[in-house]
């Protein structure tokens, strides 16, 4: 355990934090007690000097002062008069981060790089306990692993109830800038501009949703179409619980294993070309496909999601042919969709459900599946978010939604998180990370890293799969034609 007594003295102690409370919304509880995991691998300097772990810890605490919700404790309704879930920050009893260190023995970063940072090569020292298992159930955890070459990896965990992926990357950016400034300007504390200052107050969400209530017609459309589909699928989930148990008994228990897949730059280019050949459009020409579907743009993320969803759906059709449904769950950032500032750091990763039958998905091309995904994303309007949050506030609805993540329902759903500006943001003053990983923390689930800068390296996709589903996917010709790295 890093000695924290010295860290918390000086200019960034308790006196810079005041008593605060933050509301927790229904969307926060879709994540339960899960932690978000991120790992940064940093190589050492040419002279093989150890990287400055004390500076990393010092800057971490300074950054947390600007994000006080990370110092709080989750307080349940039964402990409060107002009967609401809150995160309470007490300056006289702060919930400090859990900070630990370990050595990876003879493991080197060069060796990990040769193996494409496969989890099989990660040292046991890299394993980090869940925050809910630690004393005081801290909001944030940092585990520093030292390598024989002098490099380090930073394994971070944050409670998903209080923050989502886009929010935590704002925190990482602040942390890295402070760490960088400590080495360059020891006596200067960076100050955020008003437009860049983090926002935490959950009431800003409600205010934005209330402003969407004026779109009465839009709400009716959302209720009649998409919300009916969401309710139908949630009702289906309760019915499928029994079917899932029966399927497990019929096909045998299959253990979960973590797999890392990669799409090389050439494979991604091939995928984009496959789409462009079908959906290419310009002012002079609009393809029949675009005319039919009304969508001329799909992102790389849409296409990768389509490949994975299609492959897993085909595998599930084999292991459970009686179930006709397949579902993709996307972590959709709704900040800009409901006019919330991008500086909002709370949990606004909206669980967007995309549903089809297996027959429908089998009759489509990759581009058509990606277009279906993009269509659902584009239709995530403020009115729909408002109504969906209202639906999720019902305890039974939330239980059904959470059950979609249960391993017994693996053949029904998948969860995808992507789109963080990692490489462009993280610079702690001793070089940018050699590799950044997002270990998949949902079962079943994907965790996709899409670089936001031009890259010749592979895009890695972390997936938790049942063995029988994995074996079928390995023989899937469409899947293997694009996915060319398997760790």
Order of helices and strands: EEHEEEHEEHHHEHHHEEHHHHEHEEEHHE
CATH architecture of the largest domain: 2-Layer Sandwich
Q: What would the average pLDDT be, to the nearest integer?
A: 75
Oligomer: single chain
Helix content: 25-40%
Which residues form runs of ≥5 with pLDDT under 50? Answer: 215-223, 238-253
CATH fold-level label of the largest domain: Chloramphenicol Acetyltransferase
Note the overall shape. globular
CATH class of the largest domain: Alpha Beta
The number of helical runs is 15
Specify Rg, calculated over alpha carbons. 23 Å
Biggest sheet features: 5 strands, mixed
The name of the CATH superfamily of the largest domain reads Chloramphenicol acetyltransferase-like domain
In brief:
Pfam families: Transferase. It is built from 15 helices and 15 strands. By secondary structure, the chain is of the alpha+beta class.
Could you walk me through the main structural features you see in this protein, from its secondary elements to its overall organization?
With 487 residues, the protein is an alpha+beta fold. The chain folds into two domains: 184 residues, Chloramphenicol acetyltransferase-like domain (Chloramphenicol Acetyltransferase, 2-Layer Sandwich); 258 residues, Chloramphenicol acetyltransferase-like domain (Chloramphenicol Acetyltransferase). It is built from 15 helices and 15 strands. Helix 1 packs across helix 3, helix 5 packs across helix 11 and helix 8 crosses helix 14. The chain is globular. The relative contact order is 0.16. One of its GO terms (molecular function) is transferase activity.
